[in-house]
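To whoever is on call:

I kicked off a structure prediction for a single chain this morning and the downstream step that reads the tokens threw a length-mismatch warning. I double-checked the sequence; it's 287 residues and nothing unusual in it as far as I can see. Pasting both halves so you can look.
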Amino acid sequence: MDIALIGHSIIDYVSARGKESVRPGGIYYSALGMLSQKKDGDNIFLITGVDKNRFSLFNSLYGRLRTDFVFNLPDMPSVLLITEKEGEREEIYRNLSRELILPDVDWNRFDGILINMITGFDIDRNRLAEIRRNFEGLIYFDVHTLARGVDVGNRRLFRTIPEIDKWLSNVDILQCNENELKTVYDYNDRKEAAEEIMKHGVKLVLITRGNSGSELYYKSEDRTEAIELKAENVEEVNKIGCGDVFGSVFFYSYLSTRDLKYSLNKANYFAGLTAAGKIENIIKSKL
């Protein structure tokens, strides 16, 4: 299979347990999930920007992907992630970046396209609509930081997503967590929110719920069906990238099998490995 991953690469400054560390982030974690599933003959194409002076942070992973569409981005975004507290992390951007440069490409060369709105500015809704017009396959869309606005201190705070219908009408599979879901449709009932989302043409709605597991909503004839999974029972040592790995593993598995339950189980399992800090071991074992 040929799969495109679209999203900003970010330098993460992670504040945890009183210490700050520097890590590769953003679409890096979607790529990590894809590489954990990739089979011989598959091509994972990155569409992202990276500062050539910071490429060493990403090279061990990106060197194993197709980088035909990776461009130099001197003003590469960076973010301080504060994960000390329970619940949703705090995000303070140290540098915001421009929209990604999309290649002039026949989008139908890909079997699937995953768009992760890492910064919320990765692409705009007009570019998404352009991709949709020119692509007949499945588009997977992770709401991510599209759910957050920017205040004067570059903090990313949750807000209602403007003109959400114009985003939803151009994607097949939507992923969000519980807080992000409320920025799409602020319903108390997740099933009701998923039903409203699917009215715009979205076929599958995935909701990640942290320690409470994950849910998948879809239509079977005229009924809304749900698959619910508990979170993996792991010792959590990492809070970064779990949802990104979840999404890319689900998408790869679903493209390969069209089996919803199998794909959700696999995504849930690999998100657990990420939370346990073991996902990199899977990648190393495939070398």
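Update from on-call: the warning came from a stale cache, not from the record. Cleared it. Sanity check on the structure: The domain at 2-285 is CATH 3.40.1190.20 (UDP-N-acetylmuramoyl-L-alanine:D-glutamate ligase).
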